[in-house]
Amino acid sequence: MSIEGIEAVFLETHNWGRAAKFFQALGYTLEFETDHASGQFRSSTGPYVFIAEVPADKQPRTQLVLKVPDADALRLDPAVEVVTPFENTHFGTREMTVRDPDGRLWSLQAPPGEAPDEGEHHAG
User: Fold this and answer.
1) 16, 53 Cβ separation under 8 angstroms
2) Residue 83 neighbours by CB distance under 10 Å
3) Of 96, 98, 92, which is closest to residue 111 (Cα–Cα)?
4) Average pLDDT over all residues of the chain
5) What is the pLDDT of residues 39-64, one digit of tens each?
């Protein structure tokens, strides 16, 4: 089992309202908004965009989220550095973080499922 492509783009912003208006002006539709200055946008094609407001003293980041159809079936080459194994998220998915050779972090997102045993890494 391997990655299926880009699932989402995760963006942090200092101003949720301005960021939301910007993406709506580009033609994205707001799918949902949370009560803590974040929300999800979608265009007719491509990955969804999730935007979250962060405090002014935090540098906003952008992260691509790669789609994994089944976390339990994913087998990564040992050359892939796993930063955090798959964990259940508060928003109903499972997420893993890996680091590429240049030090960038990548998020791998899978549908919900049973959590792997503590300390289990799917790397081989």
Assistant:
1) yes
2) 11
3) 92
4) 88
5) 999 998 889 999 999 999 999 999 89
Contact in structure between 12 and 54 (CB atoms under 8 Å): yes
Tokens of 101: 């050779």
Q: Per-residue pLDDT for 88 more than 70?
A: yes
Question: 11 forms bridges with which residues in the sheet?
Answer: 51, 62
Q: Look at strands 94-99 and 38-42 and give their pairing.
A: unpaired
The amino acid at residue 81 is E
Cβ neighbourhood burial of 76 (10 Å; 0-12, 13-18, 19+): middle
Cα dihedral 29, 3, 86, 57, rounded to 10, equals -50
